Description:
21% strand, 2 domains, 10 strands, six-stranded parallel β-sheet
Amino acid sequence: MKIIRSVKEMQDQAILLRSQGKTIGFAPTMGYLHDGHIALMRQARKENDIVIASIFVNPLQFGENEDFDKYPRDEARDRKIVEKEQVDILFLPDISEMYPNSMGVTMDVVSRIGVLCDRNRPGHFKGVITVLTKLFHLTQPSRAYFGLKDAQQVAVVDLLVTDLNFPIEIKMVPTVREPDGLAKSSRNVYLTEQERLESKHLYQALQLGKQKIIDGQKNPVMIVNEVKTYLKQNITGKIDYLELLSYPTLSPVNLIDEQVIIAVAVQYSQARLIDNIIVTP
Amino acid sequence: MKIIRSVKEMQDQAILLRSQGKTIGFAPTMGYLHDGHIALMRQARKENDIVIASIFVNPLQFGENEDFDKYPRDEARDRKIVEKEQVDILFLPDISEMYPNSMGVTMDVVSRIGVLCDRNRPGHFKGVITVLTKLFHLTQPSRAYFGLKDAQQVAVVDLLVTDLNFPIEIKMVPTVREPDGLAKSSRNVYLTEQERLESKHLYQALQLGKQKIIDGQKNPVMIVNEVKTYLKQNITGKIDYLELLSYPTLSPVNLIDEQVIIAVAVQYSQARLIDNIIVTP
C-alpha cells in the first residue's frame, strides 16, 4: 500500500492511473475506522481496479462549538486496517495541503437541507461538499462509496454529483451494525456504559416504524408518534429529531406512497448518535 | 468533426479519450466566434491530442437586465469556423441539458471580485464558475484555454481551479485585436460607425499607461489619471471603470512593484467594451 500525503502527488498518480484505463474506487473517511468504513473499502475492492481511501478530518464541516479538536484520531491503527483491506493508496493530507489559503471560491447546498442533521449543524454540508469536490478532483474516482448511516450526506452528495456533472457513480453502502443493532460510528466510544446498553433501541424504534409502513400505515404522523413513544420509553438520551421524509429528496410527505426515510438523532452526554432506515412501501 | 449535444454522450466520450491516454484541450465559448476564439482553438490544437470546443450561452452569468436574449447567435456560421480549425468535438448543449433542474448546489466567488466587471455585474462570476465547473466535468480537459481580454474571468478561473483542485492547466491566450487595436469581441457588432472609429482609443489609452510604467512611474494614481484624461479627450462613450490593480490577485496597489493590470470598460449606446493590458515593471 502506498501512502500519499501531498495533493499534487495524489492527483498526478490518479490521473496517470485513469490514463492507463484503470477504474478507481474511492472511500473518503475521517479516520478512526470501524466496520462501516471497512464495508466501503471492501465494496470498492470488488468493483474497481484501484482502491483509494482517504483519511482527513475536515475542519470546514465542523461547527464552531463542535468536536473538531476532540474528534478521535489514531493514524497508526487506521493504517493497519486499510492495509489489511488491500487498499492500493491511502491518501493522508494534512490541513495545510488541503487548505493552503482561505478559500476564494465557496460552495453551498440549497436543497435537501433544513431538515435532519442540517437543522442543528448549519454549514455542515457546505463543508462536506467543498471537501468532497476537492477530494474527487484529487483522486479521480470512477465510483465513490458512502455509508447510508449518514443518509442525508448521501442525498446531498447525490445532488452535488448530479448538479455539477461529476463523472462519478455514487455507491450507497448499507449501514454496518453491532450485534445488538447499534449503527457503527467513530463517536460510539464516547457513550457511557448505560448509554451504550440502551442505544440499541434507536434501531429497534426505526424497525418498528418500518413494520408499520409494511403493515399498510400511510400516515407519517401516526408512524412518527409511535416511534417517538417507543424511544421515550426506552432511552434516556434527548431526541434531537425524529423525521419521516421522502428519500433522497428529503421533502415532507403527507401520504407514504414513495420511498421514505425514517431518521433519528439522539444526544447523549458526550456523543450524538444518528441512525435511519429507508423504506419502500 | 463530431457534434455532441447530450451531456451524457459528451462525458462518456471525454472519459473514454482520457482512459486511452489522450490529452484534451478545451476552449469554452458562448459562440458568435471571432479571431479571439479561433486563437484559443489554434493553441489548443498545437498542445493536445484532442480539441473540444463548446458553444453555450450560459443564462446563469447574465444579470436580469443584461443581454441574454439578444446575445448574438449564429450556429451554422460557428460550426464552419470550428470545423476549419480542426476541432475534434464541438459540444453544443441546450439549456435543458445543462440545467435540467434548478441547482441544489451553488457556487460563489469571494476573492478577486468587487472590482472591475464585478462592480456592475453582480453574480456574473458566480454564473461563470458554475458553468465552467459543469463543462470541465463534462469535457475532462488536460488544459483549458481562456482569452486575456476577459482578464478578471481568467483570474477567477485560476482561483476556481486552484481552490477546488481541478486537474486542469489554465492557459491564458493573448487578446486578438483588429488592425487598429480594438480587442475582438462578439459585442463589437453593436457599435455605431462613429463608436467603432473612436473605439481604437481604448487600447491606445492602455498602451499609454503601460509606457508610463516602463518609463518608471510607480504611482498608480498618476497613471490612472493620465489614461483617464486621454480617454475623455478621445472617446464619447461613458467610462464605466478604469482601474490599476495587482494581477491576478486584483488588489489595489500603492506602489507599482509587481505585475499589474490596467483595465477599462466603456459603455456605448448598444455595447459595453472592455479591454486591458498586463504590465510587469
